[in-house]
Specification:
- It is globular and about 50 Å long.
- 43% of the residues lie in helices and 13% in strands.
- The chain is α/β, with parallel strands linked by helices.
- The strands form two sheets. Strands 4-3-1-2-9-10 form a six-stranded parallel beta sheet, sandwiched between helices.
- It folds into two domains: 144 residues, Rossmann fold (3-Layer(aba) Sandwich); 111 residues, Rossmann fold, CATH 3.40.50.
Length: 320
């Protein structure tokens, strides 16, 4: 049996990137700190030949925009195609087989219609349900958000008591327990489902008294567990970082997988010698399977000016 690696040795051993003041650095919103200041990976000496195909990514709605923001900041020359499956959100309460089917539909659309070179499953529920199958079926790299988040979590802890919060589907899948075990670090992990958080974000209600009351009720067991590091195990949750941070307390480090996922994309593209090394800004295309005007309005507020417009996309069963 392999002896778990001590927490104190893990960050040095892996060379992972811990993200500090994740959203605070951008817009002054409270909340997301992980370990030390972020350190960008060393750029490979040569990335030629340049692969001009876009990066594709999807989420059930708006949560994956946290990953899109990190990718745009880290890889500004890359073209990006994002699909928010708002006609079928939230994914969290749905059966895994259904989420797997939705994920396969969207992935095939991105690969066939947009000829993407890499796919980011920017949804924790979809990563838990479908990542393995997507990686087996398609030839392009497929990257999820669970393993990068787990890597950051075990790097951030000081006491070895860590927590993860997510949707019912993600927490129930056991994907984070498996990902944390895979790191080899001996930590005490507490997992907690937080139903309702996603719906508040999708309605744009990220800083209200109602969401604070819900957070105090849902997070009480996590506060009782006395964790010192908490992984926001849903890509929607960074938008609630201020409230979650206030409920958990100043000494608890909040960890988001968004930036670690962006770094993983960078590393993968560098390893493929396929990342864009041209100057200039890439094109960013956004699609919604639901109400496009609503997606544009709320998405622009959450992401920024890059989401200038969105287009409609439809999938079989999108009215489910």
């Amino acid at each position: 049996m392999t002896t778990p690696m001590p927490v104190s040795d893990y960050a040095e051993h892996t060379g992972t990137y811990e993200i500090a003041e994740l959203r605070r650095m951008r817009n002054g919103s409270a909340g997301l700190t992980v370990g030390h200041d972020p350190v960008a990976p060393e750029r490979p000496a040569s990335l030629a030949p340049v692969d001009r195909r876009p990066i594709g990514m999807f989420d059930s709605g708006f949560g994956g925009l946290t990953v899109a923001r990190a990718l745009i900041d880290l890889l500004p020359s890359e073209d990006l195609v994002y699909i928010g499956d708002t006609a079928r959100y939230p994914y969290g309460p749905r059966p895994q087989d259904e989420v797997r089917r939705f994920s396969m539909q969207i992935a095939e659309h991105l690969i066939v219609d947009h000829e993407i070179k890499l796919l980011v499953v920017a949804c924790n529920t979809a990563s838990a349900a479908a990542l393995d199958e997507l990686q087996q079926k398609f030839q392009i790299p497929v990257i999820g958000v669970i393993e990068p988040g787990a890597t950051s979590l075990v790097s951030a802890t000081r006491s070895g008591r860590v927590g993860v919060i997510g949707t019912v589907g993600t927490v129930g899948s056991g994907a984070y327990e498996e990902a944390v075990r895979h790191t080899g670090v001996g930590v005490d992990l507490t997992s907690l489902a937080c139903p309702g958080f996603v719906e508040f974000v999708e309605r744009g209600l990220v800083d209200t008294e109602q969401v604070r009351v819900l957070a105090e009720r849902l997070l009480a067991p996590m506060v009782e567990a006395d964790v010192d590091s908490l992984l926001l195990g849903c890509t929607h949750y960074p938008f609630l970082a201020r409230t979650i941070g206030e409920v958990m307390g100043r000494d608890v480090v909040l960890v988001s997988s968004a930036d670690e996922t962006a770094f993983e994309v960078y590393r993968r593209l560098g390893g493929m010698r396929a990342a864009q090394n041209a100057s200039g800004t890439g094109t960013h295309s956004f699609y919604s399977s639901g109400d496009v005007e609503w997606f544009e309005d709320l998405g622009r507020r959450l992401l920024g000016p890059e989401l200038a417009a969105a287009k409609s996309v439809s999938f079989a069963g999108a009215a489910a």
